[in-house]
Amino acid sequence: MTYEETIAYLYKQMPEYQRIGHLAYKEGLDNSLALDAIFDHPHRRFKTIHVGGTNGKGSTSHLLAAILQESGYKVGLYTSPHLLDFRERIRINGIMIDQRYVIDFVEKYKDQFEPVMPSFFELTMEMAFLWFAEQRVDVAVIEVGLGGRLDSTNIISPDLSVITNIGYDHMKFLGNTLPMIATEKAGIIKPLTPVVVGEIGNTEVAQVFIDKARSVEAPLIFAERYMNNFTAERSGTGWLFHADNYAGLRGELNGPAQDKNARTVLTVVEVLLETGYNIPREAVQSGFEGVTAITGLMGRWQQLSSSPKIICDIAHNAHGLRYITGQLLLEDYDRLHLIFGMANDKDVDSVLALMPKDARYYFTRASVERALDEKILKEHAAVYGLEGTTFASVSGAIRAAIENAGEDDLIFIGGSSFVVADALPLFT
Question: In 156-305, which ranges are continuous DSSP H helix?
Answer without folding.
Answer: 171-174, 178-185, 203-215, 223-226, 258-274, 281-289, 291-295
